[in-house]
Amino acid sequence: MAQVNYFLTEEQQMIVDLARQIAVEKIIPVRAKLDENEEFPWDIMKDIAQADLFGLYVPEEYGGFEKGCFENCLALEQLAYGCIAVTTTFAASALGGYPILLFGSDEQKARYLPDIAAGKRLVAFGLTEANAGSDAAGIQTTAVEDGDLWVLNGTKQWITSGGEAEIYTIVAMTNKNKGARGATSFIVEKGDPGFSFGKKERKMGLNASSTRELILNGCRIPKDRILGRKGQGFIMAMRTLDIARPGIGAIAVGLGQAALDEAVKYARQRIQFGQPIIAFQALQHMLADMATKIEASRALVYSIARTIDEGTKDTAKISAMAKLFATDMAMQVTTDAVQILGGYGYMKSYPVEKMMRDAKILQIYEGTNQILRNVIGQALNKEYAKK
Amino acid sequence: MNIVVCIKQVPDAKTVRFDTEKGTLVREGVEAVINPFDFHALEAGFQLKDTYGGEVTVLSMGPPQAENALKEALSLGADKGILLSDRAFAGADTLATTYTLAKAIEKLGPVDLVLCGKQAIDGDTAQVGPGLAVRLGLPYVTCVNALSVLDDGKTMHLRRINEDGYDMLELEMPALLTVLASLNTPRLPSLKGKMRARKAEIPVWGAQELGAEPGMVGLAGSATQVVSTSVPTFEARREMLEGSAEEQVEALISRFKEAGIL
Hints:
By secondary structure, chain A is α+β, with helices and mostly antiparallel strands. In chain A, 53% of the residues lie in helices and 15% in strands. Chain B has a single domain (2-221), classed as HUPs (Rossmann fold), CATH 3.40.50. Chain B is 30% helix and 26% strand. Chain B is globular.
């Protein structure tokens, strides 16, 4: 049966094959145990590092492969086929690493990127706070200059890889009166004085990823840890998210594909009324819709990622579309997969219940799907005002 | 440390089928993979190289497509791969295979350690490792599942699994080992390795390059020949025993006696 041809280069196909091999050999055998024990997947992170995938987006001069958003999406999709909690840890390191790549000084890049590319140190992105989620301008963490140091105070919430990562890109207010324009980004390292970790969250799903508070209590860091200039923090965060969001779409595609595979496999072997349940049109139609939506999401994510890699400016709208459409798809497809497996689907002995629990976060993190609709809607308003 | 790892390309056990009429493996449409035990021999080589430096050279005797197995070994971290391929090598049994591999290793020059998987999953003879050691005049230990090198960089402490337990052995390099799957966990390929493997040229050595005597390789050099093969018939019966637990036990014992098991 013909499959859609996305015209991957030989190198891109290698990335797909390698990430798929990690998912099949290293992630799938342990994903249920990691989920059950809420265990951080250090062994798998080492496997991913050894396979060189942490360096995909990092320039060659810092030990990476200088690939784009698209190649990152290819890797994320295949890893997510195994487990999106594990993949989120991998993706979060890129989310934290992009600000250094995009806005760091040469000195900062040389200091951090080689270790990031080699997977020796994980990175975390610290934007969200208790009162600043979708409304990032409501950040209350502050940074003030004190001689040769910056002093940071505040608490970041729900930070992926908190406590496990060694490098943190943190957004703090340097001028509260300026609102979003008063935000600035900093690099904070594990072990910096006044930097500690709060409670580890217990979650509905995504249990193999660590989600923790970052506590900055008079945290003193050297002057040269500022990323870019004062007041650029909010713009940096938005630019970073614009690059990262198609990756979340790719994770959704991988998850949807995994759920479809389980559903079709089950429907072909489950006998009711003397025949496999896939023979029933009601189920065929569900599976057909699932497969079509997955393929549509994949095509959308790939084409948007490739557009971003062409150096296109102002990608907020299309990045939001890639994440929005694919993650809504993943929620629906995983829910339908549970439905197709029926009572078995609801049991922990089959993988689809975990997929459904995990899928929900995709509609929430890196911008809720409601906020993304705002982004797209506002962009439309602007575009049409010019016409 | 100069390490040579010998690998074999075998049909993928997941997809292989058997033609019961002809009594042969159906090779069409079956993927060829590196023999599973050989991944552990490669990993052992890579770990020793990681610690002691040196080179890992991978050899495989086989048809031209065995190049893929060597490229996969390169993507995992091997320094070079050499394909031993020649029409004259066809039909080789283990005797002719060990001759060919030995000629290639002699051509490579001094070697500290030769590693092989315990056996190939197609032929299942487990003879190539020991046979090769004898050809090369090297001491050897088979079925190794733990391995450490002492400070002198030459003496190895080995654990060899046998039917009753294990032996702890000391062996000085140069030597040959065949390894078990329990020795280590093979690594995944890396992207850098895959890119390097894609561009790598795999040299092909034939009978001429090896200076091999024609009567020693392939079918001509083989002491054994496959006269015929057949698929064993498997007759299984199922019988549900009924009654109380005592009755079932008695019935079971009488069945065992009938079958001559007890």
